[in-house]
Here is the input.
Amino acid sequence: MLRHCVHILGVYLLLLTLSIACRPCNNVQLYYDFATISWQSQQDSVGSNNSDSCLLTLYLEQSSFIGQLSSPHSSFFINTAYAYSCAPDGSRGLYNKITAIHIRSDQDFNASYLAGADLSNLIEFAYWDTFNSNRSDGYVFEPLSNASLYKINQQQANMNYPFYFLIKEKPDLSSELQFTIELEREDGTIHQATSSTIIWK
Here is the structure.
């Protein structure tokens, strides 16, 4: 009987300890969000450094964390699931997901990509990922595709690091172009920004 009571007391103390340890996680903000974007070219003149590629930078601006993990009255077992790690703010990624990315030029790029055409096939996307990067700056470059959406939507680090878009080749129908990026989101919101004029020499 005494052994049984000691066992019950031990279980109770364990549950109590886990509950107390978990409480600091109650105010974790699960998601991040942004209000506006900015879109900038890294150079206004291309070709002078023996490269025809052009790098543009996307910033998600007015960013903030949103969405509490749980309230003090939430289920003990829900809290306990996070007790061991207390996930960092924004760990579940972007709250209002991006569903599409479009990049277009205001002038004809080449015979296959006229003004207003989506240039995704000509672009590489770069995101910050020190675990998988072989670059000193921690970025990974890959072809722009639907897979790129996951990187923007899921990575909590996005609040601190911009994204890069590399136009890999030189336009052959126009030498002066502006590029517009358009982000579509789950709730129908569209963010749009246009670069300054970029000149290929």
Remarks:
- The first strand starts at residue 29 and ends at 33.
- Residues 70-84 have pLDDT under 50 and may be disordered.
- DSSP finds three helices and 13 strands in the chain.
